[in-house]
Amino acid sequence: MKVETGTGKYEKLLEKCKSLAPIPTAVAHPCEPSALAGAVEASELGLIVPILVGPSDKIMATANASGIDLKRFQIVDAAHSHASAAKAVELIREGTAQVLMKGSLHTDELMSAIVARDGGLRTARRISHAFIMDVPTYHKVLIVTDGAINIAPSLEDKVDICQNAIDLAIALGRERPKVAILAAVETVTSKMPATIDAAALCKMAERGQITGGVLDGPLAFDNAISKQAAATKGIRSDVAGDPDILLAPDLEAGNMLAKQLSFLAKADSAGMVLGARVPVILTSRADSVRSRIASCAVAMLVAHAHQAIK
After folding, report:
1. How far apart are CA 195 and CA 181, in angstroms?
2. Does residue 43 carry a pLDDT above 60?
3. Tens digit of each residue's pLDDT (9 = 90 or more) over 123-180
4. How would you label 279-291 residue by residue, b for 16+ Cβ within 10 Å and e otherwise?
């Protein structure tokens, strides 16, 4: 299968994956053509070994209607979407699979199984979401967080959101990821709590409460992305013009930013849930083949990074 090419940023991720073993992946409820095809395509590229979890008759019917051969793949029967999510999480907990992938069930069904206090995949970290974006007008892959899970994160939540994103960027090959903490302005003011959080996060990084990255903020979006815009404002920053991560003040800002990049700047976006026991691939029926494959590639790199730490 040939994946359509874009700017080459996602293709560099695929290159990193070529020397790595495919990761056993529990695919929850792949009962629509796009969900099933995404798992099969990732398998053909050597990224994952899919374990298809869901109603076996529906999975087979979907495959037959789409011309997909499932002879090589294991199917674990589950009665419905809720049961599929629970069984997929169970496969993770017992060590059969090392990555979780969303099929055609609703995101909240999968997340409910992930965050369940008994039998879920919680860790000490706050669970967060990251868009891994290939923006044609930007010089490298850009991580936007959190635009899908944490609605109004507290300062403590942002610590975990930031650390999750830094760890992700390191798994993708960045040595000291640069984090731009976004707000509407670049000065600290009590009238805008996001600016105070940004300043606190920077100080927390100095004191070792956040590790592995270089933080700066508050930064308005133009100052974060453009070194020239930052210089015009008199901002001296190692992050401005070269961030790996954009940390949004809340879900609404992060979600709008990611979708604006997708629809106005023609960016491709892969989606990941971070902070759980294993990486979680969040795909959408609207995702392109390239985005689905990129999500699997990112999950593969993160899973291997976790194994190296263990």
Report:
1. 9
2. yes
3. 999 999 999 999 999 999 999 999 999 999 999 999 999 999 999 999 999 999 999 9
4. bbbbbbeebebbb
What is the model's pTM? 0.92
pLDDT, one tens digit per residue, over 181-233 is: 999 999 999 999 999 999 999 999 999 999 999 999 999 999 999 999 999 99
Co-location of 147 and 220 in the same domain:
yes
Other Cβ atoms within 10 Å of 66 Cβ, number: 13
First to last CA, the chain: 34
Q: Are residues 105 and 146 in the same domain?
A: no
Q: What residue type is 268 in one-letter code?
A: D
Contacts 24+ apart (CB under 8 A), 73-76: 73/40, 73/43, 74/50, 76/26, 76/51, 76/52
Q: What is the CATH number of the domain that holds 55?
A: 3.40.50.10950
43 and 137 co-located in one domain: no
Q: Closest by alpha carbon to 218, among 231, 228, 133, 239?
A: 239
**33-44 helix and 56-66 helix, angle to the nearest 10 degrees:** 80
Q: Residues 216, 230: contact at Cβ < 8 Å?
A: no
Residue 282, beta-bridge partner list: none
Instruction: Indicate the length of the chain as a whole number.
Output: 310
Q: Classify residue 138 by its DSSP letter.
A: S
Question: By C-alpha distance, which of 255, 1, 259 is closest to 152?
Answer: 255
